[in-house]
Amino acid sequence: MAETKKEVNLHGMWASPWVRRVTIALKIKGIPYEYFEEDLKNKSQLLLKYNPVKKLVPVLVHQGRPIPESLIILEYVDETWTNSPKLFPFDPYQRAKVQFWANIIDLQKLRDVVKAPNDDEEDKIIKEIQENMNKLEANVKDLYSGGTHVNGESMEILDVLMITLLPIINGVEEAISIKFIIPENFPLAFSWMKSSDGLSIVQESAPNHENLVKFLRKLRQIFRRV
Ligand SMILES: N[C@@H](CCC(=O)N[C@@H](CS)C(=O)NCC(=O)O)C(=O)O
């Protein structure tokens, strides 16, 4: 994989919701970038050079300088490209609140369900996900900026995070054949996750569901040795 002279490069992987957070944010901000698809079983020398500590995607490279970790990238992008729609609130208190919830909207446990070595572990992680969703559900009214989604430009950071949750929830549920996020149990959070479905920014960046399920099933087989 060759380094390019593009101002902004993104190292990603098609199925990754963490990467999708970044691609949606770059589109909202109107930032042109070059995309590098990584084979995570055989990571490129560039990825290892840019993210030697965690060796994960996404990594954004701006003018040759690497920035790892999706939430850090989102903040960096918002602070660097200021003449475009703002993703994080200006007000420090609102910003702190958003950052707190950004960490609660956690993708890690969704991946952990797929990798759970046995049913007991799987059940435990599913319960934790549901508890997290309950907390989110109880706070949606306070957090959702509400109904401003005329176009992608009006999306804010928590919208981006919520949007990227749904395809991965659907993919994981199908891959493990358990429906654990029942829309009726989380009606507000669920409609928030679906609120921007019609936007081209959202549609174009969505992973193909069948491919995602296949990918997650394979991952599960590796960890279950079935
Ligand atoms: N906390 C990281 C998580 C990123 C992450 O887990 N990336 C996965 C892609 S789905 C990865 O690179 N996995 C490769 C590996 O585990 O070796 C973020 O927010 O960017």
The number of distinct structural domains comes to: 2
CATH class of the largest domain: Mainly Alpha
Neighbour order of strands in the largest sheet = 2-1-3-4
Question: What string gives the helices and strands in order?
Answer: EHEHEEHHHHHHHH
Q: What's the CATH architecture name of the largest domain?
A: Up-down Bundle
- The count of β-strands is 4
Give me the CATH fold name of the largest domain: Glutathione S-transferase Yfyf (Class Pi), Chain A, domain 2
Domain GST N-terminal: 6-85
Function: Is involved in the conjugation of reduced glutathione to a wide number of exogenous and endogenous hydrophobic electrophiles.
Main location: cytoplasm
InterPro entries: Glutathione-S-Trfase_C_sf (IPR036282), Glutathione_S-Trfase (IPR040079), Glutathione_S-Trfase_N (IPR004045), GST_C_Tau (IPR045074), Omega/Tau-like (IPR045073), Thioredoxin-like_sf (IPR036249)
Structure description:
It is a single chain. This protein has helices at residues 17-29, 45-50, 70-80, 92-104, 108-115, 119-143, 157-176, 187-194, 200-205, 209-224, and strands spanning 8-12, 34-37, 59-62, 65-68. Strands 2-1-3-4 form a four-stranded mixed β-sheet. The two termini are 34 Å apart. It has two domains: 8-80, Glutaredoxin (3-Layer(aba) Sandwich), CATH 3.40.30.10; 92-224, Glutathione S-transferase Yfyf (Class Pi), Chain A, domain 2, CATH 1.20.1050. The model is unreliable at 147-153 (pLDDT under 50). It is an alpha+beta fold and 226 residues long. 56% of the residues lie in helices and 8% in strands. It binds glutathione. Residues 13, 16, 18, 40, 55-58, 69-71 line the site of glutathione.
